[in-house]
Specification:
about 425 residues, Helix Hairpins, 3 domains, 13 helices
Length: about 425
């Protein structure tokens, strides 16, 4: 083989090597693997690196969102121009049609007037000794020929005048039509241009939205890894936290999230009676009630059935990771046939498995528990506090609690909301001491 051949393949291989290992080295996972389980300094450095990457990605996302706003503004303006141009174009088409009708009417009138003129010539022939052929070949301007026949000439002159006026009017209308047709061409060109601009803007909008989603995915991935590293750091620094009882768990979660203690107690009371009622059914029992009920209501509940199976798989993944039996108890599907839904909520916070998965990394960052446990009071109360924090429940105002109750439950129920408000103010009554 030639030297050039080997050089080419060496270049390809070396390029691939650099790209692959460069991407691997600078990826979050690669950098994390550089840190040992006991190297707190390395983990802190990695945390700083991730925080900077999150900051950079957030800035890029912010710029993309600004670009998207500009695109949307341009798109709105372009659509308005398209609308106005389309209106003007339709008006031009209607005007051209009107002018064409006017021309047609004038042509018909010309035919009629010329027919009258022919009749007049015939009458003139009959009233004189001049042959008809001679009369017909008389030029329009040779009016002296008719001077001997004043009555007929007067009528002929009027008809000639009308024909002349019609010709002038027709010429004017044709000129107006031509002007409008030129305007129509300009409008069609503008419309084509703006439609192309709209197409380009829509394409750019789709691309930018995709870029924003990509950046959001990067940010979410980086934040998840950051949470995990912070959890690892908590463990290494002795900050992994396990509450002795639910009151200690509430105090800890409140300090970490700024959700008031009373608000947490209010939600815990309504959800599980402060951890007393965390569920009496296995997931198989949940499924056995929910599936027939969904099927009873037809194909529109196919998505709900799919969601149940998804949650079931995630639930098994959670209990398998934690070393629990798959018969671990969760909330039952309500027995009332009027309820269209499913059980499966876990622990004191009553999170569904898919929701719990979404909060795991945040719980780890707060408690230092590498594998958060829905049935652990520290993790469960922290999960509730994090969700309430996200819902804006960092005060005890009734309007705030109302909004948070809707967010937490997925709908507004008066008794649920009023119970939370009551216990948020009177949570000390829950304990004898």
């Amino acid at each position: 083989m030639s030297k050039n051949f080997f050089s080419f393949y060496f270049f390809v291989f070396s390029t691939f090597f650099v790209l692959f290992f460069g991407l691997w080295f600078f990826s979050p996972g690669a950098l994390a693997s550089d840190c040992s389980d006991t190297d707190t300094e390395c983990i802190n450095q990695r945390i700083d690196t991730l925080e900077q990457k999150i900051k950079d990605a957030s800035k890029k996302k912010e710029n993309l969102e600004k670009n998207l706003n500009q695109i949307n503004t341009s798109l709105t303006a372009t659509q308005q121009v398209i609308y106005r141009t389309q209106v003007l174009l339709n008006e031009s088409k209607q005007t051209i049609e009107q002018k064409e009708k006017e021309v047609s009417d004038l042509e018909q009138q010309l035919v009629l007037e010329r027919s009258v003129l022919k009749g007049l010539l015939r009458e003139l022939y009959e009233a004189s000794d001049i042959p008809l052929t001679q009369i017909m070949f008389v030029q329009t301007g040779d009016f002296h020929f008719f001077h001997e026949y004043d009555g007929l000439f007067s009528l002929q002159e009027k008809i000639q005048g009308v024909i002349g006026e019609i010709d002038v009017m027709k010429e004017k209308v044709m000129g107006e039509k031509a002007t409008i047709e030129d305007m129509k061409k300009d409008q069609e060109q503008l419309l084509a241009l703006k439609n192309q601009q709209k197409k380009n803007l829509v394409s750019e909008k789709i691309d930018t939205q995709g870029d924003i989603e990509d950046q959001q995915a990067i940010i979410s991935r980086l934040k998840k890894e950051l949470d995990q590293l912070q959890g690892d750091l908590n463990i290494l620094s002795g900050k992994s936290y396990n509450a002795k009882d639910i009151r200690e768990a509430v105090e800890f979660a409140s300090k970490k999230t700024n959700v008031p203690v009373g608000v947490l107690y209010g939600f815990l009371k309504k959800e599980t009676n402060i951890g007393v009622n965390t569920g009496q059914c296995t997931y198989k029992q949940v499924e056995s009630v929910a599936i027939p009920r969904y099927k009873k209501y037809g194909s529109k509940y196919k998505n709900s059935i799919a969601l149940l199976y998804t949650r079931k798989a995630l639930f098994y993944d959670i209990v398998d990771t934690l070393g629990y039996s798959r018969e671990k108890k969760v909330s039952c599907t309500p027995p009332s046939s009027a309820y269209i839904g499913q059980g499966g909520a876990m622990g004191v916070a009553q999170f569904m498995s898919d929701v719990w998965k979404g909060y795991e990394s945040k719980i780890t960052a707060m408690t230092g528990h590498k594998n958060p446990d829905p049935w652990n009071i520290t993790d469960g109360v922290m999960a509730m506090a994090l969700k309430l924090q996200r819902a804006g429940a960092t005060s005890s105002k009734e309007s705030v609690i109302r909004s948070a109750s809707i967010n937490y439950l997925g709908a507004f129920y008066k008794n649920y909301y009023e119970g939370i408000v009551y216990w948020s103010k009177n949570y000390k009554l829950l304990f004898n001491d």
